[in-house]
């Protein structure tokens, strides 16, 4: 009898609890305070892709400046990262580094629109794709290397808003032709001496490209009589354009669906085959000289990719990207079955050499780079690594030598590095150690992120609003 | 001392008492609050868990003057985002406390919803890693109990908790061009 009562009691409790549960389930909504986070909740659906009618190269202005001497000794710095796109100045004369406290002699300085676009040099002329703030125009400005006097400028209205500066590309000059890519992927080719407009191309309208975040950072490549561009748009992935006429020599369809990055097309000889290598958003490709896709790899896909790939052997590429991505090592091989790619490793920036904006330098079998901001204790330091022992870092410049984003080049067996605030550091690397040889403030402004150019013993540097020409001639033997 | 003189002294002392009291109050040490020095903060995450208040009285604040209003905000998007959109899986904030609003091309505004913010500092770390550092943690004094011994200060590995005067209860970052103090 007693057992029955207990069973009945518990059964009743269970039934009552079940009834309460059912009623609560039906009436209470525990998710009432939850807000869903879905795509397109920021109002950006109203954001219209800015495709304006831009008359590329429409304006021309010549200034009463004396033309450079035709027979003057020429030390060209003809494009992004110099003559071989490796940021190494082999032909640089001996350069001094022991100046008085106020730094190396300043030959001239000119004001520029806000940005990071860097100059190139050919035939004693300096070319920079500037942004004219008042006219709201991209402008290819040609200066005399001797005194900084402006010879001419060719511009076109391009009304853009500040987005961490405006200008950020390096022109290419060869065969008396200058090719530029503007912030919104407008391509312009002009005669390098007269400034005459040769041809134009709107990679947004014509090739279906998308302007990357913070505007276009790709620097054009001139290879012989062709300009090589990477629109990575709906209609073309890579283009070869006749340098003087603007005719399309070949176009590689974008079947891979890559998007334009800030990386630039590089020329490499992999497995004894000369080719164009481009790191786009979504993958990296190798393309033959006649526009045939040789290989592609999609194993490492940074969402933002600024540094260009660096060849470290016949089969290997060192890849680096900022914003948390770090670096990777890609192997590209070729046999009777075709081309093959293998991602040999990928590393976080705290563990390996990496780069945020500036492309690393491969010199005498070693890899040199400025570590990105997210590289932990070695952030913004110059580091060296043996490519055969990645991800190990052999040497770092130390906490007393940090260089911000650090545009840098190699000349006269030294590294010349600009930090964010316009300080130029000269650093030697010997016995697996970095030594600071000198440090001088050479620019008055901030964000001196534009790549450095070197023409003989004249160095061209810029901060966000000015460009300076420094005389680095060694005075003491 | 005669009786008259004694009464005069007595009344004088009584009248002087409020004045003396005022002087005593003025000599009291100024009231102070706990605050985070953003230059020392390493975004370890302890502010979210060590505070006696649940959720924490530490919140992310946004110094708009130093924000880049970027499309790609590394405080908003986490490193392994799938796409650059507002879907939850792309956001760095674990509670969805940051709202992103399109202003005009190419600018976006980011606002902190303090009711959702738990003070974990993940967005602060992201902003400091790649952006301008306009997001940083502060003790919100409308929420803080101002404990005699702050429990977060006890465990802060960077010793970023400092006492600040009540008339300057927040520590802002120095903007470019501003004098440092």
Search tags:
heterodimer; A: 477 residues; mainly beta; Methylamine Dehydrogenase, Chain H; 5-stranded antiparallel β-sheet; 34 strands; 38% strand; globular; B: alpha+beta; two-stranded antiparallel ribbon; 4 helices; 6 strands; 18% strand
Molecular structure report:
The complex is a heterodimer of chains A (477) and B (181). With 477 residues, chain A is mainly beta. Chain A has a single domain (54-471), classed as Methylamine Dehydrogenase, Chain H (7 Propeller). Helices cover 5% and strands 38% of the residues of chain A. Chain A has one helix and 34 strands. Chain A has one helix at residues 2-27, and strands at residues 59-62, 88-89, 106-111, 120-122, 125-132, 137-144, 150-157, 172-174, 177-181, 186-191, 197-202, 221-223, 226-229, 238-242, 248-252, 266-270, 273-280, 283-288, 293-297, 310-311, 316-321, 326-335, 338-347, 361-363, 366-370, 382-385, 395-396, 408-411, 414-418, 423-430, 433-441, 453-455, 458-462, 466-471. In chain A, the strands form eight sheets. In chain A, strands 1-7-6-5-4 form a five-stranded antiparallel beta sheet, with no helix packed on it. In chain A, a hairpin with a 2-residue loop joins strand 22 (326-335) and strand 23. The longest helix of chain A has 26 residues, at 2-27. Chain A is globular. The N and C termini of chain A lie far apart (115 Å). The mean pLDDT of chain A is 94. With 181 residues, chain B is an alpha+beta fold. Chain B has one domain. Chain B is 24% helix and 18% strand. Chain B has helices spanning 3-26, 46-50, 122-130, 151-155; strands at residues 32-36, 58-62, 98-104, 107-112, 135-139, 161-165. In chain B, the strands form three sheets. In chain B, strands 1-6 form a two-stranded antiparallel sheet. Chain B is elongated. The termini of chain B are far apart. The mean pLDDT of chain B is 88. At the A-B interface, loops of A face strand 3 of B.
């Amino acid at each position: 009898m007693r057992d029955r009562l207990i069973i009945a009691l518990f059964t009743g409790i269970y039934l009552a609890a079940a009834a309460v549960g059912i009623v609560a389930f039906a009436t209470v909504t525990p998710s009432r305070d939850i807000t869903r986070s879905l795509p397109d909740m920021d109002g950006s659906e109203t954001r219209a892709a800015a495709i304006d009618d831009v008359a590329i190269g429409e304006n021309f202005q010549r200034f009463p400046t004396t033309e450079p001497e035709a027979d003057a000794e020429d030390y060209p710095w003809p494009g992004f990262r110099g003559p071989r796109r490796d940021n190494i100045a082999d032909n640089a004369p001996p350069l001094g580094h022991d100046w008085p406290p106020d730094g190396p002699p300043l030959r001239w300085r000119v004001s520029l629109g806000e940005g990071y676009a860097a100059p190139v040099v050919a035939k004693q002329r300096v070319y920079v794709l500037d942004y004219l703030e008042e006219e709201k125009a991209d402008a290819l400005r040609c200066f005399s290397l001797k005194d900084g006097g402006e010879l001419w400028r060719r511009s076109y209205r391009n009304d853009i808003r500040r987005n961490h500066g405006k200008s950020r590309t390096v022109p290419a000059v060869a065969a008396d032709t200058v090719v530029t890519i503007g912030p919104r992927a407008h391509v312009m080719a002009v005669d390098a001496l007269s400034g005459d407009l040769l041809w134009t191309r709107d990679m947004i309208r014509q090739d279906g490209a998308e302007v990357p975040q913070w505007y276009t950072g790709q620097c054009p490549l001139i290879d012989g009589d062709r300009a090589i561009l990477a629109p990575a748009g709906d209609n073309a992935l890579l283009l070869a354009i006749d340098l003087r006429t603007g005719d399309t020599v070949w176009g590689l369809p974008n079947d891979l669906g890559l998007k334009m990055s800030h990386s630039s097309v590089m020329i490499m000889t992999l497995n004894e085959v000369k080719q164009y290598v481009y790191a786009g958003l979504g993958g990296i490709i190798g393309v033959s000289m006649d526009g045939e896709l040789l290989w592609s790899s999609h194993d490492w896909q940074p969402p933002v990719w600024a540094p260009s790939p660096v060849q470290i052997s016949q089969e290997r590429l060192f890849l680096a990207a900022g914003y948390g991505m770090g670096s990777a090592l890609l192997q590209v091989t070729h046999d009777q079955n075709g081309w093959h790619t293998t991602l040999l490793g990928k590393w976080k920036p705290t563990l390996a050499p990496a780069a945020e904006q500036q492309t690393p330098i491969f010199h005498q079998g070693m890899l040199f780079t400025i570590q990105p901001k997210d590289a932990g204790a070695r952030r913004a330091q110059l580091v060296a690594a043996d490519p055969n022992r990645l991800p190990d870092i052999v040497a770092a410049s130390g906490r007393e030598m940090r260089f911000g984003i650090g545009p840098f080049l190699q000349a006269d067996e030294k590294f010349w590095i600009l930090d964010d605030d316009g300080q130029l550091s000269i650093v030697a690397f010997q016995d697996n150690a970095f030594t600071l040889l000198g440090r001088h403030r050479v620019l008055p402004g901030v964000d001196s992120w534009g790549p450095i150019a070197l023409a003989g013993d004249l160095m061209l540097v810029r901060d966000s609003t000015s460009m300076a020409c420094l005389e680095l001639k060694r005075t003491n033997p | 001392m005669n009786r008259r003189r004694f009464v005069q002294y007595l009344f004088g002392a009584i009248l002087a008492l409020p004045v003396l009291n005022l002087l005593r109050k003025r000599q009291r040490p100024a009231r102070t609050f706990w605050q985070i020095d953003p230059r020392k903060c390493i975004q370890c995450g302890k502010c979210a868990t060590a505070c006696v208040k649940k959720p924490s009285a530490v919140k992310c604040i946004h110094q708009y003057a130093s924000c880049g209003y970027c499309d790609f905000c590394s405080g908003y998007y986490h490193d392994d985002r799938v796409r650059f959109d507002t879907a939850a899986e792309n956001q760095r904030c674990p509670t969805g406390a940051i709202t992103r609003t399109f202003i005009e091309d190419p600018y976006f505004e980011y606002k902190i919803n303090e009711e959702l913010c738990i003070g974990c500092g993940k967005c602060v770390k992201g902003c400091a890693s790649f952006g301008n550092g306009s997001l940083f943690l502060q003790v919100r004094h409308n929420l803080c109990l101002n404990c005699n011994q702050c429990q977060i200060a006890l465990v802060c590995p960077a010793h970023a908790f400092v006492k600040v005067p009540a008339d300057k209860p927040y520590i802002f970052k120095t903007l470019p061009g501003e004098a440092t103090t």
